[in-house]
Fold this protein.
Amino acid sequence: MELTKIDERVYSILEKKISLIKTDQGVIYLVGPIKLPVNLYNETVTFQWYCWLNCEEVTEDLHTIVDMLSSINLAEMQQSSVLVYGDFENADDALIRMHSICHTGDIFGSKRCDCGFQLKQSMKRIVENGVGAIFYLANHEGRGIGLFSKAMAYILQENGYDTVEANRELGFRDDQRNYSDAIQVLKALRNKPVTLITNNPRKLEALKKSGLTVSGRQALWGDVSEYNKKYLDTKVKRSGHLREDVTCFND
């Protein structure tokens, strides 16, 4: 079926909403900001939403960028995005979270992890702070092993393996995530200090190594239950997550 020719008015609408971030491998196309009203604990909060696409093909021609959308199946690829709140570009300090996608926790509300809780709590903290951003990293499922592999890792966990062991037994490192794209987008949106919401020292290290000014860190623990005690304990004992008040969740 022949595709309908795109009206020039479409390009005029989009041209101010698409920017390019050049990388060593190609380019990141960033689209936004887009107003996104969100239901956060039964209150409507409006964020500014951006989405990005990493490509090897570099072009500043909007026609080429839009035309290629129909020639590649983006529905079978994962794209990351960021929710921004307040004057993110200009505020003296901003609260941010690099949040790895968790299909089971974020969408289904799984109690096997604390991801859904961390996502909503981070959004709440950012709103209370008045400025900040949630970077939602779509290629980080299962600490970077993908959803299908994560499902197999869950089966191993049901048979006595912890999170680290399950990933390694499937041929992966215990944590395969990379934050370079998100950091590039962060730098494009802001060049002032940030405070990172995380328990993971690897995220903190990645930001500092990139040259960003990190003014602090906020821990985020909670939603502990019988279903995720071992998972949370493994985060501390085997993955080095920073837990200040207690050393074990199984006590």
User: Anything to note?
Assistant: Residues 8-140+177-237 form a domain with the Rossmann fold fold (CATH 3.40.50.10990). The CA atoms of residues 20 and 71 lie 20 Å apart.
